[in-house]
Amino acid sequence: EYIQLCKRYYSTEPETVDFLKCAEEARMKINSWVKTQTKGEIPNLLPEGSVDEDTKMVLVNAVYFKGKWRTPFQKKLNQLYPFRVNSHESIPVQMMYLREKLNIGYIKDLKTQILELPYNGNISMFLLLPDEIDDASTGLEL
């Protein structure tokens, strides 16, 4: 029944893999599937060594989206800005810059600002920025 549900709702089928004997072969097969699904945009999702004989399961989903911003970012304005890794630490990272009037809102229950970055058509990216971070970690890795 599980396999039928996967086919029906996700247009996919789970595969059995012997990670104990063929971990590298399985990794390459998964990467090949992801590369095909993303039209070559993600050629190496699982780096060498990420799957080994101790691996029990790999669950992968791939979505390909290549939209154009309604108001394109200008590359000449890209520069280093501080990026907050956690509540105590920032690092400089290359960021895009845009000076534009955009929709911004606030979600009281989440104590979070929400910003809409529109693409051409009727698709948008929504960015959430919490007022506070409860601990020293944001879940981001350096």
Set down the secondary structure blueprint.
Blueprint: H1 2-10, H2 19-37, E1 79-84, E2 90-95, E3 104-107, E4 112-118, E5 124-130
Antiparallel strand pairs: 1-2, 3-4, 4-5
pLDDT averaged over residues? 89
Helix content: 10-25%
Q: Which stretches are poorly predicted, pLDDT < 50 over at least 5 residues?
A: none
Order of helices and strands: HHEEEEE
Largest sheet composition: 3 strands, antiparallel
CATH topology of the largest domain: Antithrombin, Chain I, domain 2
GO molecular function: serine-type endopeptidase inhibitor activity
Domain Serpin: 1-142
Protein name: Serpin domain-containing protein
Family: Belongs to the serpin family.
Question: Would you kindly provide a written description of the structure presented here, covering whatever features stand out?
Answer:
With 142 residues, this protein is α+β, with helices and mostly antiparallel strands. 20% of the residues lie in helices and 21% in strands. The protein folds into two domains: 1-66, Antithrombin, subunit I, domain 2 (Antithrombin, Chain I, domain 2), CATH 3.30.497.10; 75-130, Alpha-1-antitrypsin, domain 1, CATH 2.30.39.10. The strands form two sheets. The chain has a three-stranded antiparallel sheet, with no helix packed on it. Strands 1-2 form a two-stranded antiparallel sheet. It starts with a helix and ends in a 12-residue tail after the last strand.
